[in-house]
Design goal:
CATH superfamily: Response regulator
Strand order of the largest sheet: 2-1-3-4
Distance between the termini: 13 Å
CATH architecture: 3-Layer(aba) Sandwich
Number of strands: 4
Radius of gyration: 15 Å
């Protein structure tokens, strides 16, 4: 881990358009960091592999699902992942294997590739490595996806927390 007291550990969550899954993951992950009192030592954001929704708010169904569980997603604005994200972040978390393949294709070095992980790989006992895209589904699917993201984000945070506390 390349972090110090002055520099937070940086995580970016990546999905397709940055309006459904990755904003959920970013918001949930930050909730864990804030709740543990580590918000100064870890930073997170989200991005999409595509540019279709740059500047837009999260999908309303995403915002509704987050609100039903007590999260606030209203500040989110979509952006596209760039090559600069490789150097700016310590961990790049893909929401499904198609995003992982795209990110690996964009990587410019083995160091970039080593930063890429699938969110569901942090969840022991997960039945899939892919968080399904709820975009073409109804509100129930957004709630189901958020549940998957909460579990995996909790597991990811629990793996990072000891190293973050040791760096303080």
């Amino acid at each position: 881990m390349t972090t110090s007291v002055s520099e937070p550990f940086r995580v970016v969550f990546v999905c397709t358009g940055n309006i459904c899954r990755s904003p959920m993951a970013d918001i949930v992950f930050r909730w864990f960091a804030d709740g543990a009192g580590l918000s100064e030592h870890i930073a997170s954001t989200s991005a999409g592999t595509g540019d279709w929704h740059v500047g837009e708010r999260a999908d309303q169904r995403t915002l509704d699902a987050l609100e039903r569980r007590g999260y606030d997603g209203t500040r989110h604005r979509a952006r596209q992942f760039t090559h600069h994200d490789f150097s700016r972040n310590d961990l790049i978390v893909a929401l499904d294997r198609s995003h992982e393949r795209i990110l690996r294709g964009w990587a410019r070095s083995h160091g970039d590739i080593d930063k890429i992980a699938l969110l569901m790989s942090f969840e022991s006992g997960a039945h899939t490595l892919d968080v399904p895209d709820p975009y073409y589904a109804g509100p129930a699917m957004f709630d189901e996806v958020l549940g998957m993201i909460e579990g995996a984000s909790r597991s990811l945070f629990r793996q990072l927390e000891p190293a973050l506390r040791a760096a303080i």
